[in-house]
Each structure stands twice: as C-alpha cells, then as structure tokens.
Specification:
Layout: H1 3-23, H2 43-65, H3 75-115, H4 121-143, H5 151-154
Helix pairs in contact: 1-2, 3-4
Length: 160
C-alpha cells in the first residue's frame, strides 16, 4: 500500500465531491426550456468533477490493493525526470502572459509529445494545432469563456 498516493487520491475525491455538491443544480439537461441551450450553469462543472472523483477513486483503489512499486527518486535519473516535467511547466506558465493560452498549450503539448512521448512529427503537428483549436472552439465559441490571448491577437493576426 502506498499511503501518500491513497491520501492524495482521497483529497482529490474530497475536492471533487465538494464541486459536485456545489454545482449539482445544473448537472442535468434542462428539459423545461428555462436555460438557453438546454443545459444549466452547473452541467460542465458537475460532470468534470464527477470524472475527477471517479479517476481518483480508481487511483486510490489501485494504490491500496496493488503491488508496491520501485522507489521513484533513486539517483540522478529520478531528479532529471522530475525536472523534465517541472521546468517546461514553469516556462509555459510564465509564457502565457505574452503568448496566450492557446499558443502556449499547443507548443507545450507538442514538446511533450515529441520529447517524452517520442511521437512522429505528423502527430506532433496535429496535436500542436488540433488541441488548441478544439479548446478554442469549446471555450471561446461554446462556453463563451475568454482565455488569455497572445500579442498576435492584439495585432489582429490570430483570433487567439
């Protein structure tokens, strides 16, 4: 049993349960027609929290019942693997201010697909362009939620 993994998963389950409780009023499709578009404001938060709760429950169960794994931070390889994740994340977080969410997320996913996942260049290109476009469609066009834009938006070059 890995107590820290189980405790972290239980903490995620608790946060997800609070989010589900808070947004349960709009969790189902509105059949009365009182909400524009047919869904209430709590639909997305409730079901997102439900997915987080379910995944955390699976992680908690597998960590509790599964065999003990090898130590994660042995030697320089462990430190290098952590830095390989943390440094690009910090750079991406800082870069959002100038390059916006969509450009940074595309480059971030492309970098990880190529560097860590070792995907071929076609898949990296599709991921780098396709995911930000899908996120743009979902948030800007669907949910009407504005995410941080790049300097290219201010110049009128890109819609994001």
């Amino acid at each position: 049993m890995r107590p820290y993994q189980v405790a972290t998963a239980v903490a995620f389950m608790f946060v997800a349960a609070v989010a589900m409780t808070d947004s349960r009023a709009g969790a189902l499709v509105d059949t009365t027609g009182t909400q524009p578009g047919g869904i209430g404001a709590g639909f997305y938060p409730f079901w997102s929290a439900f997915v987080v709760f379910t995944c955390a429950a699976v992680v908690a169960y597998r960590s509790w019942r599964g065999p003990e794994g090898a130590p994660a931070f042995e030697g320089r390889e462990g430190v290098y693997s952590v830095l390989k994740l943390v440094v690009p994340m910090v750079v991406a977080t800082v870069a959002i201010k100038w390059f916006g969410f969509y450009i940074v997320s595309g480059l971030y996913m492309g970098l990880f697909a190529r560097w860590i996942g070792r995907y071929n260049w076609l898949w990296v290109l599709l991921l780098t362009v396709g995911m930000p476009a899908a996120i743009y469609g979902a948030f800007e066009l669907g949910f009407r939620v504005s995410l941080p834009k790049s300097f290219l938006y201010d110049l009128g070059v890109l819609p994001f």
